[in-house]
């Protein structure tokens, strides 16, 4: 092999980016004059010897490979140097040959920096010149360390820093720390114990020395994956954990953190998750996550908690977590104890990115869009991407992007567990009630899950959704009912509704009633469908619904435009009345039916369920009479016939066929029994009093005689079910007697002509029970 060919091999070795992985002096075999043709090519190149100073690099973008003197052959490594000043000695310049890591690649050779003749400038000034770096890609957006490292022995690191501090040489302190970082980077698998303990001690007494941008860049480079290290073998995450805690110590009291922390977090989240999932970096990671505004589920609710330490996404073909599993397992109890013993750690978590919130959000969303829009089979979607989405669900756009693909991820066995965690995070952070979150809830309702384990987790997430925002309750109920009536009905609708009713037993029935009101305001007649839907809901929820709250919700007055301008107002009143009677009959459970049959046979044991049902019907009838008295007149001027029909129907004094004519329910075998159970109930004082007041009103179509007749019938019916354990009528207000006597007053017809003086008070007044009665001449 010729000398020229050997030099080409040497130059090619420079391009492999391995020159900065060793810090030993150049061995004798690296001299080109001594290279043997049959000598194996080394895997890494050493730094050139410091025997002779290197000259200026040749101009242009080429590497000189021609015949040169022995002293000029050491110039080749100078291509990768980044000198900052001519004031540094030659051997110091050559020590900087490893400042640029291997990720710089060929781009580092395209334009070589010139030797500077000015004094060294601070890292802040140097970083300001490169602030226009692209912020949207992952790795290219994270700048490499821009400070020239100064390597010293770990044993004298603290002494060197102390000496530089006494001289006021901040640049040397920065260089020494970057040199220490460089040594850690070259020995990730087995870092020098003296070195990292010295850095930990320095962070304890002087945390602010790590807060310069040059050191931040250097430490962040430790948080990135080093492609030169094979993580397939068992590794050590100590270097990354150390970098996280050094940065945490430097920025613990700072409210505004640099954006580069978010970028390295995103990169590790999508990659090996070396430190993102480490319990030793929890404070640092939690503070970074404040940028996303995400409410993270508790560890007890995260299914990936037991596998989070493994970190590696084996299904996606990535490497396992480099930390030793046995070591992590042995430290679990200690970490839990540390958390319990140091509650002040909670105070270290605070919003860190309020000033950069907009730029961070744009960056994160762009990364997520790029990952989700890649053309790849569903089986190749990384679980780490789902975990990143779980952490960024604080962004409404992220929630919307995730929910559109969530059902497919849940059905994929390789992604089921992180997808379930993502589902929980989506539900916990759906709290804005904007159009985006409305669409998110709509998509969540449409998710179809068959396995029981997935379905149970889904119901737990529905509960979290209801807790996230109080307005989510009404939205969820409405979307579930509309989906149930659609052609693409979800078979899980009733289970979701059951969960909602169990979560909010008082409020959920009212929102359900509002949905039924919306159905009845449609131009098309939805009464038959509403009756069937209501029966199905009661059946599937096993009667676990507050019937009184539901019926009271049906009677509420609505002020929306659709109700004010409703076309079929009289039909609406009549159909609401019908739903009230159906609801009352649907309250007859199997236990109530059995107790009613036993009561008919004279068995008075175990009647608690029957008595509770009777009192429930009495309360609903009281509310229904109030609705007809106060609300219905404001909705529409209902005709006299329809108004009286509605009043008699809710009191179960109407003809039997009016209760089942729409869909033949109740079935013929149970009709008479159901009607009798709903009619033989106590009569509340408010119900009786309001019926009498309706009879006294000139604006309502129930006349005094009809009101008295109805009141008489209700009192007699209630007296028929009198029992020792059931109070059927209790009157405490004397005004009821006044109303009865006033109804008994004779009122002449208003549309007839009477002779003059035919009707006038007599001079004689008769007093009866404190009431003045005038005789008629």
From TrEMBL:
A GO term from the CC aspect: integrator complex
Location of the Integrator complex subunit 1 RPB2-binding domain: 358-513
Bias kind Low complexity: ranges: 97-110
Pfam families per the UniProt record, alphabetical: INTS1_RP2B-bd
GO biological process: U2 snRNA 3'-end processing
Region of interest called Disordered, as start-end residue ranges on this chain: 32-117, 302-331
UniProt-listed InterPro entries: INTS1, INTS1_RPB2-bd
PANTHER family per the UniProt record, alphabetical: INTEGRATOR COMPLEX SUBUNIT 1
Protein name as it appears in the record: Integrator complex subunit 1
Organism of origin: Sander lucioperca
């Amino acid at each position: 092999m010729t000398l020229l060919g050997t030099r080409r091999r040497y130059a090619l070795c420079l391009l492999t980016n391995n020159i900065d992985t060793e810090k030993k002096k150049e061995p004798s075999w690296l001299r080109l004059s001594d290279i043997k043709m049959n000598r194996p090519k080394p895997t890494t190149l050493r730094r050139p010897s410091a025997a002779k100073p290197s000259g200026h690099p040749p101009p242009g973008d080429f590497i000189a490979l021609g015949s040169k003197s022995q002293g000029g052959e050491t110039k080749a490594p100078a291509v990768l140097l980044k000198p900052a000043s001519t004031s540094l000695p030659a051997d110091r310049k050559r020590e900087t040959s490893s400042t640029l890591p291997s990720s710089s690649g060929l781009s580092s050779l395209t334009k070589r920096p010139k030797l500077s003749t000015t004094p060294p400038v601070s890292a802040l000034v140097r970083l300001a010149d490169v602030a226009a770096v692209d912020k949207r890609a992952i790795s290219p957006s994270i700048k490499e360390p821009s400070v020239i490292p100064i390597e010293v022995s770990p044993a004298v690191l603290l002494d060197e820093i102390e000496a530089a501090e006494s001289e006021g040489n901040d640049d040397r302190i920065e260089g020494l720390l970057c040199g220490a970082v460089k040594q850690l980077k070259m020995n990730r698998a087995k870092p020098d114990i003296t070195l990292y303990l010295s850095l930990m001690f320095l962070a304890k007494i002087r945390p602010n020395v790590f807060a310069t941008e040059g050191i931040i860049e250097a430490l962040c480079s430790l948080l990135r994956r080093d492609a030169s290290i094979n993580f397939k073998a068992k590794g050590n995450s100590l270097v990354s954990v150390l970098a996280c805690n050094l940065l945490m110590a430097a920025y613990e009291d700072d409210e505004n953190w640099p954006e580069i922390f978010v970028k390295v977090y995103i990169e590790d989240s999508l990659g090996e998750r070396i430190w993102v999932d480490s319990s030793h970096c929890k404070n640092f990671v939690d503070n970074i996550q404040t940028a996303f505004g995400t409410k993270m589920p508790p560890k007890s609710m995260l299914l990936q908690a037991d596998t989070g330490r493994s970190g590696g996404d084996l299904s996606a073909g990535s490497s396992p977590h480099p930390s030793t599993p046995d070591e992590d397992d042995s430290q679990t109890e200690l970490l839990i104890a540390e958390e319990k013993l140091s509650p002040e750690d909670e105070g270290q978590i605070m919003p860190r990115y309020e000033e950069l919130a907009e730029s961070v959000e744009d960056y994160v969303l762009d990364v997520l869009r790029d990952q989700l829009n890649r053309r790849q089979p569903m089986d190749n979607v990384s679980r780490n991407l789902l975990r990143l989405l779980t952490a960024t669900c604080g962004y409404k756009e992220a929630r919307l992007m995730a929910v559109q693909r969530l059902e497919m991820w849940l059905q994929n066995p390789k992604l089921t567990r992180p997808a379930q965690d993502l589902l929980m995070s989506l539900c916990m952070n759906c709290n804005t009630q904007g159009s985006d979150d409305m669409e998110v809830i709509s998509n969540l309702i449409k998710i179809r899950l068959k396995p029981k384990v997935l379905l149970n987790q889904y119901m737990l997430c529905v509960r979290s959704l209801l807790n996230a925002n109080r307005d989510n309750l009404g939205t969820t109920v409405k979307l579930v009912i509309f989906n149930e009536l659609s052609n693409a009905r979800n078979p899980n609708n009733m289970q979701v509704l059951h969960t909602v009713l169990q979560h909010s037993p008082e409020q959920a029935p009212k929102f359900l009633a509002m949905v039924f009101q919306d159905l009845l305001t449609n131009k098309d007649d939805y009464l038959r469908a509403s009756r069937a839907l209501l029966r199905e809901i009661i059946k599937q929820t096993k009667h676990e619904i507050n019937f009184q709250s539901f019926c009271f919700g049906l009677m509420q007055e609505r002020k929306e435009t659709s109700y004010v301008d409703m076309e079929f107002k009289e039909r609406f009143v009549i159909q609401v009345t019908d739903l009230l009677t159906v609801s009352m009959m649907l309250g007859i459970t199997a236990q109530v039916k059995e107790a009613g049959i036993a009561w008919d046979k004279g068995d008075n044991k175990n009647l608690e369920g029957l008595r509770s049902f009777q009192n429930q019907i009495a309360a609903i009838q009281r509310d229904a009479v109030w609705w007809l008295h106060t609300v219905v007149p404001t909705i529409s001027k209902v005709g006299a016939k329809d108004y009286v029909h509605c009043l008699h129907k809710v009191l179960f004094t109407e003809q039997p066929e009016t209760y089942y004519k729409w869909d033949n329910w109740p079935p013929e075998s149970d009709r008479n029994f159901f009607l009798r159970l709903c009619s033989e109930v106590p009569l509340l004082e408010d119900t009786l009093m309001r019926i009498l007041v309706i009879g006294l009103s000139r604006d309502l179509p129930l006349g005094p005689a009809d009101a008295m007749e109805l009141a008489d019938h209700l009192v007699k019916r209630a007296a028929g079910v009198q029992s020792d354990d059931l109070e059927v009528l209790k009157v405490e207000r004397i005004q009821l007697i006044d109303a009865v006597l006033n109804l008994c007053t004779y009122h002449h017809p208003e549309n007839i002509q009477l002779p003059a003086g035919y009707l006038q008070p007599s001079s004689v007044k008769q007093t009866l029970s404190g009431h003045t009665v005038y005789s008629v001449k």
